[in-house]
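Hi everyone,

Forwarding the result from last night's run.
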Amino acid sequence: MFGLFSKKKEVTAEPEINAAPPQEKRIYILDFDRTITILHTGAIAYGNELKPDFIQKNVKKGFADFVRRVISNGHAVYIASYSDDANAGIVQEEALSGHDLIKFYMDQVFGREQSIFTTSRKNGEGEIIAAGNIIANNSQDLKQYHLDIIVQQEGLDQENPGDMRRIYVLEDDEDVVRFFMDKGCTVIVPFSASRSADTAATKTLFTSYMPESFVS
């Protein structure tokens, strides 16, 4: 079944969560730029690019409904991006990048009090005690850095094929998709890195190209 999510205006209610059995729990890993967004942010945003109207238009229709559905089914959702916190310092104007930029987007989509997407938490000594589910780092390692954090948080084993099959990937970079495929992860177009990447980049990803089997 395609066209799973309607194009109605997103609402900000937090989803009800039904716990999935541990071996049936899926972990969804979504890229940010051109997978969640329509236009690439360039890993930094400032000025008009941070206005609510711009952000609402730049987030793909159906994204919020997709997230609410998979969470309500007891699954986990992460955003894994090459956007980096350090980028904010490269322009003179007040700008956001990395974790702050993605969190700002998610607050616009789900509401400022939302807890669906969170960044890392640190203790008084600056040590990370919880990574959150927004992982933004320009690691340029096909997102192995991001995967390491996710499998640690979810208690998965990268050498266990059953664990890796429970990771569902939406990513517009063909090389990154192929990397996750080689790890045994599930992609939106089975056995095709190029078609999976092209599909993730489609503007109507969440309204026209989302198979029922990928979210049920």
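The domain at 25-215 is CATH 3.40.50.1000 (Rossmann fold).

Cheers,
N.
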